[in-house]
Prior knowledge:
Elements: E1 17-20, H1 28-39, E2 44-46, E3 53-57, H2 61-71, E4 81-83, H3 87-91, H4 99-108, E5 113-118, E6 133-137, H5 142-151, E7 155-159, H6 171-178, E8 184-187, E9 197-200, E10 207-210
Parallel strand pairs: 1-8, 2-8, 4-6, 5-9
Antiparallel strand pairs: 2-3, 3-7, 4-7, 5-6, 9-10
Helix pairs in contact: 1-5
Amino acid sequence: MGIISSVFLLPNFAFNMIISIHPSNPQDRLIKQVAECLLDGGVVIYPTDTVYGFGCDIFQPKAIERICRIKEIDPVKANLSFVCSDLSDLSKYASSISTPHYRFIKSHIPGPFTFILPASKAVPRILKSKKDTIGLRVPNHKITHAIAEKLGHPILSSSLPGEMVEEFTDPELIHQKFEYVVDIVIDAGPGGMEYSTIIDLTEDEPVVTRQGLGQLI
Length: 217
């Protein structure tokens, strides 16, 4: 299913708009508007400290399915991650974090890293990989942090589809491409062109499985 043929995915409450939020001083009323959209099962495109991506509420299965249908992927194989507001929030969704790993994560957040950890029981089954793991992030971006904090739990995050990430740096062009399949596109200025660095923490030693923007300390 292509993006254009996915128009019917928009629910009746869809906002279908682009809103400008200040990246350094996010307007609370607009953050609240985005959070309410997510809580209602909406899908948004929002900025992070790396690239723009799809976002939805981790407890809204239909919204998760919408993102996966837009991207034509299976939720279990989708490399979806949780964007958390802080380390305490992140810790709720990992079944166990050793002291060395806890210190490692603490020294690299907020920042452009995704940590692969054993998933806790708080993670919805649809989002757990076959290895029972989950990707967790705490981006260094005030809008992202504000949305997750207002939401009260993590944002489900996924990259926009396609190989050419530079296509998705201009919010206006992003809105033109996806306005019929998402409810809100957040304009926070130009987006980045590098993904997060993925670090597997399921073993004793951290393993970089994708080198992105984040550099290890």
